[in-house]
Design brief:
The chain has two domains: 234 residues, 3-Layer(aba) Sandwich (Rossmann fold), CATH 3.40.50; 211 residues, Rossmann fold. The chain has 16 helices and 21 strands. The strands form five sheets. It has a six-stranded mixed beta sheet, with helices on both faces. α4 packs across α5 and α13 packs across α14. Helices cover 33% and strands 25% of the residues.
Length: 465
Amino acid sequence: MKIELQKISKAFGTNKVLVGVDLTILPGEVHALMGENGAGKSTLMNILTGLYSADGGKILVDGKETVFSGPLEAEQNGISFIHQEMNNFLEMSVVDNMFLNKEIKSKFGMMDEKAMKNQAETYLKKLGANFDVTQEIGNLSVGRQQMVEIAKSLMTNAKVIIMDEPTAALTETEIKKLFAVVKQLQKTGVSFIYISHRMEEFFEIADRVTVMRDGISVNTYEIADAKVENIVKDMVGREIGDFYPTREPTIGDVIFKADHLNEKGVFTDINFELHKGEILGFSGLMGAGRTEIMRAIFGIDKLTSGKLFLDGKEIHIHNPSEAIDHHIGFLTENRKDEGLVLDASLSDNIILPSVKGFVKHGFVDKKSSSDFVTMLIDRLSVKTQSAEVEAGTLSGGNQQKVVLAKWIGSGSQVLILDEPTRGVDVGAKREIYDLMNELTNRGVGIILVSSDLPEIGRASCRERV
């Protein structure tokens, strides 16, 4: 299947998101699509699959002008979209999520649960994902949920598969298995539109790469001719230099200490110290317990035993509210379900942990809180029309910046960042690293949890594995 997007344009109100984008996908190729958060990549794919209608331009499928009425019709015609943000029903089983509205029925009209279970296991096995498909999908890690999304796409026998940040929550082993499946399907003529901010993946998996900036398709390169510095310049419109800023930390006294932490069946005897002005990196594979340790420290999950100390004094945290009162912030890896209230405004999200500081005579001081929110949005370069738009309307990377703004604004002295650059473009990554340096220069202690080993090595002062 050959797809041609010609001069596609789209505006939401006065906000011009796409301004004449051209993109051609050839049969059997992996075509990488790059651009900063807010460049219009996801909007372009939503137009292709019929979720949005274009304001101008044409879509040609095998030379025939085509407009899909919605994602279901696009899927029925061989185009499947694996979204960055998963939309699963967490209390339903894996198999029920995979076959929602696609149930296999027996000749008597009853659901054939055995056939669905066998088929679900077969497609997951292709990805090397072997786990109980009858369990609730909410019990799975973010990485395993992503593997379920990929398996669902494979079940449709798609001719073109759109992958939006497919590896952001996967382990290195899972990524290798995914790439093997992609290459195997390529041989059968399946095409992939591969959206990611991990440039090293493009050189391993892609045939061509198209770079977008501010709603325009800037350049398309054969991967053999592509150079990192050219792609970065096309993305951000400037030279970005080294991805990681130089760190010259001044390490102070111990600000936070974890002493013999245990959570039954999850982790055992965890000990570490965090100093003022330090970035302490935690690395390890998905499922190793990194996130679970941080959730327990923040009071989301319950510690079985162990002690926490802040500035040398023992503290007791039973819930996130108490952690916030101790000036501890936590940017979770799952920003959609745990980091943001998606149907609330940016302003409400950012001010949420620090609202007590703006209450005067029982009411929130709107002027002070508005100035505070505007300052943080400007400081983190959040791309938005206003602070009153819903958080769910922003791109994934800009949502991540809003979560970060929330915790910076709360005055956190200990800041836990769990995969802070997951799904974030290279320009935004640099901004986040610069901000981390700025915070540590003020004496904030940062715990950085990441599955990106180069990030751990370059951004942190010390590393725990």
